[in-house]
Specification:
The structure holds 2 protein chains of 2 kinds. Chain A is an alpha+beta fold. Chain A folds into 2 domains: 73 residues, Ubiquitin-like (UB roll), CATH 3.10.20; 131 residues, Alpha-Beta Plaits. Helix content of chain A is 21%, strand content 17%. Chain A contains 6 helices and 10 strands; from the N terminus they run ββαβββααββαβββαα. Chain A is globular, with a radius of gyration of 18 Å. By secondary structure, chain B is α+β, with helices and mostly antiparallel strands. Among the domains of chain B are: 110 residues; 101 residues, no CATH class. A 5-stranded mixed beta sheet of chain B has the order 1-16-15-2-3, covered by helices on one side. In chain B, strand 13 and strand 14 form a beta hairpin. The two termini of chain B are 34 Å apart. The chains are: A alpha+beta, B alpha+beta.
């Protein structure tokens, strides 16, 4: 039995290998499937659901769903785009995403995704306006969970790459948030060299390096130059900002 | 019982923010007292607490859409001290200055051409339908176009230095985040000569108004006061940095060469129950006599000279107009404002030819401190930003004394004087009378919201009270 097979994304024939996720196969074929919780180098967890596609008529997350040989995948249909818009809108309403004063503006994947999906106003749901304290206890790092979208990228990076388990989900349902394994950040062994702190890890402005805000001028920030798309997230490029 | 009437004027024009004027009459319908009430509340000093110090210049500039750069730079100057930087690199300081000159220029032009010129060109009580910028465009198209293009040039300077025309990010603690590319420089240089020519015309227009309407200018909201501003150490006009100087109504110094980081030793703020805007005063003179004015008029009075040739010549003419003594005429604010525009364009031309603007040395860091005080001359006057930052880099204290706050007492006196001269003995307030009061407010400031840190817009109200405290007349202009 051959290791590779064909399937279709939006009518385009794509070659996949057995065991690949829909997203991996699409990436290799140069087809962008929008995503927020998935990033190169970390195990996918399928939590943000922005990568939803339809495979043979069933809605699945592309980052975790294996490709089925000969399957038909919808990625850019109006129905799928509608799901994605709603999911991203809800993220805006659930946190305190004040783009005009956020240092992540221009390199924020949530903001860039909003632009890509044509979300110019988010009025469909009520703003929850949570009150979440800022943890600035660490000398180099700040955790501002007002801007967290619960993607879990910091959790996976700290656990799987840094081997430190600094971050973890706490609480359930609407009260779920990212917490630290300690009294506060200063109480952990987190360091600037950790992958969890790399600018490519946190897709928003939740985990930030102290004293470096607004270093990148408007017009030269990552998504000022081109919209979020495939291959936009090389770690090196983002870390240099 | 007195008859109460409410007359509405819709829409509110050319005053941004919440404002209310109350006028109290005695038994003979003469004006006893008038007050400009600022009834809105914005609260930036409170909700900045807990935020991180490097965010502050970007957050607090949201106080205003007309003068965001002033707040951006005043906060950045305070944060320079927080990161232990006493003096920026030449490139960083010149980029910030360029940004600031663009800001003063565009804001002063907006103030004069867009918001106030209709009163001056058509008359304070002229037909309300044409007393706006669109009326100016129709009646004086060349003048209007020059005003609009002058402002646009200032905004282009801001965009080139801060990344956006409004609410950019150019100044960061300890420096700036970009220099000026050669392409940006050449783009701006292309028009700067034309702008200087138009700025000179604007000075001539404002000066001509004062000379042609001498009795009005000498009497309309004209009153003696002290004046305060930053000046360069040698006494030159300096809008970005310097020492504090205050003079009394005769021009004698009250204090001079004061490091602005010690402003608390010289100034205090009084709270009055009827306004959200505080009343600052010079400590040694007390709360009754210590009030002062700030802004273009005051800067022309406090500065010994201007370090650009055309603006300096205009400044000398301005000083001669009041016989070398401090000019106390509120309507002369507009003339002073246009001299500053000319100065700014001259400084912009000078800076655009300076190769330091293409330097790469943008940022410095020093020993971290807990307190920072940034002061700058904003378009409407001296602007104070005072912060304390805790060991976690979070803001623990914030006090902002904005330009309009400094002018609070002066604006109240201007309103009182105009009310006494134009409303005493009157039983009915006409729209024109209301506008006389607005003209007095606009001479100082067309926007009230940053002074009070308020959200949104509300009507300007004028209320007329009888001797018994009963409301006789109320006029409301809806916000818009």
């Amino acid at each position: 039995m051959s290791d590779s097979f064909k399937f279709e994304i939006d009518g385009v024939e794509v070659l996949a290998r057995r065991g690949q996720s829909i997203m991996q196969a699409a990436d290799e074929a140069g087809i962008y499937i929008p995503r927020l919780c998935d990033v190169e180098g970390l195990e996918p967890q399928g939590s943000c659901r922005v990568c939803v596609v339809k495979q043979n008529g069933r809605v699945v997350s592309a980052c975790t769903q294996p490709v089925i040989e000969g399957s038909i995948v919808e990625n850019e249909s109006e129905e799928i785009l509608g799901y994605r818009r709603d999911l991203v809108r809800m993220l805006y309403h659930e946190g305190n995403h004040l783009c005009p004063i956020c240092e992540a503006s221009g390199r924020c994947e949530l903001q860039a995704m909003g632009y890509r999906l044509g979300i110019t106003q988010a009025t469909k749901y009520p703003y929850l306006q949570p009150v979440r304290p800022v943890d600035a206890s660490h000398p180099d790092i700040v955790l501002d969970t007002n801007r967290c979208i619960l993607c879990g990228r910091c959790i996976r990076a700290s656990r799987d790459i840094d081997k430190k388990h600094v971050f973890e989900y706490v609480g359930r349902g609407i009260r779920k948030r990212v917490g630290v394994n300690g009294y506060n950040l200063a109480d952990t062994d987190i360091a600037l060299s950790d992958r969890a702190i790399d600018l490519a890890t946190c897709p928003v402005g939740c985990i930030i390096q102290k004293g470096r805000g607004f270093f990148a001028p408007i017009g030269e920030r990552q998504f000022d130059k081109r919209p979020i798309t495939l291959g936009i997230l090389p770690v090196k490029e983002r870390s240099e900002q | 019982m007195a008859k109460t009437r409410v007359i509405e004027i819709d829409p509110l024009t050319r005053v941004e923010g919440h404002g209310k004027v109350t006028i109290h009459l005695d038994d003979h319908n003469n004006v006893d007292e008038a007050r400009l009430h600022i009834v809105e509340f914005r609260g930036f000093e409170r909700f900045i607490l807990g935020r991180l110090y490097w965010e502050v210049p970007v957050i607090v500039q949201r106080l205003c859409g007309i003068c965001p750069v002033s707040h951006h730079l005043a906060a950045a100057k305070a944060m320079d001290q927080i990161v232990g930087v006493e003096r920026l690199t030449p490139t960083a300081e010149k980029i910030r200055r360029l940004m600031h000159y663009g800001q003063i220029m565009q804001s002063n032009v907006l103030h004069f051409f867009h918001l106030c010129s209709p009163d001056l060109l058509f008359g304070f009580e002229s037909e309300v339908a044409k007393r706006n910028i669109f009326g100016v465009i129709q009646a004086y198209p060349d003048l209007a176009v020059k005003g609009i293009k002058l402002r646009k040039f200032g905004q282009e300077i801001i965009r080139a230095t801060a990344g956006k025309k409004i609410h950019g990010t150019g100044a960061i603690p300890g420096g700036v985040n970009k220099n000026l590319s050669l392409a940006e420089r050449d783009h701006l240089l292309k028009d700067v000569g034309q702008m200087i020519g138009w700025a000179k015309e604007a000075v001539a227009l404002a000066k001509g108004y004062c000379i042609d309407h001498l009795p009005l200018v000498q009497s309309f909201a004209a009153f003696n006061s002290s004046h305060m501003s930053l000046v360069r150490e040698d006494g030159a006009l300096d809008l970005y940095h310097g020492v504090l100087r205050a003079i009394d109504a005769s021009g004698n110094p009250i204090f001079d060469q004061v490091d602005y980081r010690r402003f608390n030793d010289y100034l205090m703020e009084e709270v009055r129950s009827w306004s959200y805007m505080k009343f600052p005063f010079i400590k040694r003179r007390g709360n009754l006599d210590g009030w002062y004015r700030v802004g273009p008029l005051s800067r022309m009075n406090t500065a010994g000279f201007i370090d650009t040739p055309s603006a300096d010549a205009a400044h000398q003419e301005f000083r001669e107009f009041s016989g070398g003594r401090p000019n106390q005429m509120s309507l002369a604010y507009h003339w002073a404002r246009m001299i500053e525009v000319l100065h700014c364009v001259e400084k912009i031309r000078e800076l655009l030819h300076d190769p330091d603007l293409q330097g790469d040395d943008l940022l410095l860091r020093g020993e971290r401190r807990e307190e920072g005080i940034g002061v700058i001359e904003a378009p409407r006057g001296t602007l104070f930003h005072h912060y304390r930052v805790d060991h976690n880099d979070q803001v623990s204290f914030c006090n902002l004394i904005v330009s309009t706050t400094n002018n609070n007492e002066a604006m109240n006196r201007a309103v009182t004087q105009v009310a006494k001269n134009h409303l005493s003995g009157q039983k009915i307030i006409s729209e024109g009378m209301l506008n006389q009061i607005e003209v007095a407010v606009r001479a100082y400031d067309p926007c009230l919201s940053c002074a009070t840190h308020a959200l949104g817009q509300m009507p300007l109200q004028v209320e007329l009270y009888g001797a018994g405290g009963d409301l006789l007349e109320r006029r409301v202009r809806e916000g818009g």
